[in-house]
Amino acid sequence: MQSSEILGLNARGNLFSYPYNNASAKEKANSKLATKRALKKADVPVPDIYAKFVTPHALVSFDWSKLPDAFALKPNRGLGGEGIIIVKKRSADAVGWITTQRKRVTVDDLKLHIMDILEGAYSIDSAPDVAYIEEYVGRHKALRKYSYRGTPDIRVIVFNYVPTMAMLRLPTKESGGRANLHQGAIAVGIDIATGITTKAYWHGEYIRYKPNTKRKLHGIKIPLWTKVLETAVRCQEATGLGYFGADIVLHPEKGPMILELNFQPGLSIQLANAAGLRKRLERIKDLEVRDAEHGVKVAKILFAERFADRVKVVEGIKILKTVEKVKIYTPKKKARKVEARIDTGALRSSIDRNLAEELGLLDESNILWKKRYAYRSAHGKQARPVIGLNIRLAGRKIKTSASVANRSRLSTPILIGRRDLQGFLIDSTEAEI
Asked: ATP-grasp domain: from which residue to which, for each copy (predicted)?
């Protein structure tokens, strides 16, 4: 990870948080209740709210017996997970509850805590606040064994309708069952393309296993991954935020839900992924993204971790000639064999326009974006589209993007650039066609 690729605090604010988030959107993100109202109106899933406390009088009139066995008590404008009480079950005497930290709380304890919230003990700038009680989400079975007591969540950075980077935050004993990194939770990077965890970062170093266990933290498959990403992107449409972090939990039955949004999300996600956020953000800044589905498709193409490269040692290193046979898969899952030029001098792969059209690859749903500059051809100036492309090369399936060009006068209808040649060796002694 090069320093030029890393997003720092000043750049985060000056280049992204403030230019792409207006005052109304930022105010909405600072209020969890306002965020939930906007998301609910847009049919973006959020946990149900059971009660809201604006004044001390509401504590007296509220019927505490109606509270369920499990719930979460939170400050509306809290920061960094402070002031949150997560109740997991009823106490044995049925007159109180047990928190995720195994502490017993009573109605009087909750009332005192809510009074602290109302007085601004946990809010931004210590201003008077509102307290609310919401649905307890619990742990999805796929993540239960990696999390200590509390509910893990997924942080997704969204910019220009594209999910740009993601991490799983796992509660630990040190964090008291909370998924906040500064309290001791584990940050686990996630490959955007597959939803599979890649590496884990904790206390300034990379770790392979959950502390004091032999449970690997890499290779975890996040359930409903595409839906997780689409849910995060839909928050931009609902709130008007252009750059933000979405905190998502996986409800065991209901699926992905938004906990909260942050227009200045923390930067440790870069450590979790061992990748710079700035480079990714710059790459998608000028793209024209149609909707959440399109944004997710763009992200999966641009930010894939290239898992095929990781198994090259097992498979054996493939040696390619300068011209190879490849299979191109159409949107209808049919395959066409063609010859491809292997060219490490080109960054991106490209495909002939006539072939792409014949295979149905120029359908609007498969166009990721169009390059903003035009290029000259015999037909005059034209915009050059970039499409999603699935190919099989030397027994390895590659999901990538390719620019569409006029290759009718060239020897092969497709060129494979160096972005798609990682893990291969090229035999340059072979004669080129």
From this structure: 36-288
